[in-house]
C-alpha cells in the first residue's frame, strides 16, 4: 500500500459524499418561461422614453445620454418646434451593443430615459435589435409620474420669451457666465 493511498481514499469518499448530498437536494432549476423568478429591485433592462404628465415627450434632445454612453449605442437628432420646445426628431438605440449600465438614465436631466425590468428582447437578426423612437416611446411617465421638465425649466410662449413672464427670472446666458 502506498503512503498516499489513505489520503486519496479520503478525498474520493469526500467527493462521493458531496455528490450524494446534492443528488437529493432541492432543485434550483425553474422551467423558464413558464415560471419566472422575481427580479431584484434595481434590475436594469430595456430602455424606454417616457412622457411628461401633459402627454408630451420628455426628451429635449440634449445629447447627454449619447455622450455618456460607453459603447456609443445611442444616436439622436435634435429639432425644435415653433414654440421653442426641443425634441428628438430621431432617437435610436442599438440594443445589440447596449450593456445596460444605466449611465444614460443617470445623465438624463428630464428623466425621459428610464430602464425597465423588461429583459426579454431576443431577435433573429442584429437589425431587429436597433430600436427606433417609435419603439422606445411609451405612453406613461414611468418611475417619476409627476415630473415635468418644462414646468421647472420654463418655455417661451406666444408673445413672451423665456423669463419675460410674471415671476420668471431671465435665463442665464452661459456664454457670458464664464470666468
UniProtKB/TrEMBL annotation:
GO biological process: aerobic respiration
A GO cellular component annotation in the UniProt record: plasma membrane
Record-linked Gene3D superfamilies: 3.30.70.3270
Cofactor(s) of this protein: [4Fe-4S] cluster
General function of this protein: NDH-1 shuttles electrons from NADH, via FMN and iron-sulfur (Fe-S) centers, to quinones in the respiratory chain. The immediate electron acceptor for the enzyme in this species is believed to be ubiquinone. Couples the redox reaction to proton translocation (for every two electrons transferred, four hydrogen ions are translocated across the cytoplasmic membrane), and thus conserves the redox energy in a proton gradient.
Membrane topology designation: Peripheral membrane protein
Family to which the UniProt record says this protein belongs: Belongs to the complex I 23 kDa subunit family.
Reaction catalysed by this enzyme: a quinone + NADH + 5 H(+)(in) = a quinol + NAD(+) + 4 H(+)(out)
Pfam families assigned: Fer4_7
Main localisation: membrane
EC number: 7.1.1.-
Binding site for [4Fe-4S] cluster 2: 69, 98, 101, 104
InterPro entries assigned: 4Fe4S_Fe-S-bd, 4Fe4S_Fe_S_CS, NADH_quinone_OxRdtase_chainI
Gene name per UniProt: nuoI
Note describing how the cofactor binds: Binds 2 [4Fe-4S] clusters per subunit.
Uppermost EC category: translocase
Keywords assigned by UniProt, alphabetized: 4Fe-4S, Cell inner membrane, Cell membrane, Iron, Iron-sulfur, Membrane, Metal-binding, NAD, Quinone, Repeat, Translocase, Ubiquinone
UniProt-recorded Gene Ontology molecular function terms: 4 iron, 4 sulfur cluster binding; iron ion binding; NADH dehydrogenase (quinone) (non-electrogenic) activity; quinone binding
UniProt xrefs under HAMAP family: NDH1_NuoI
Quaternary structure (record): NDH-1 is composed of 14 different subunits. Subunits NuoA, H, J, K, L, M, N constitute the membrane sector of the complex.
Subcellular location: Cell membrane
UniProt binding sites for [4Fe-4S] cluster 1: 59, 62, 65, 108
Protein name per Swiss-Prot or TrEMBL: NADH-quinone oxidoreductase subunit I
Domain 4Fe-4S ferredoxin-type: 49-79, 89-118
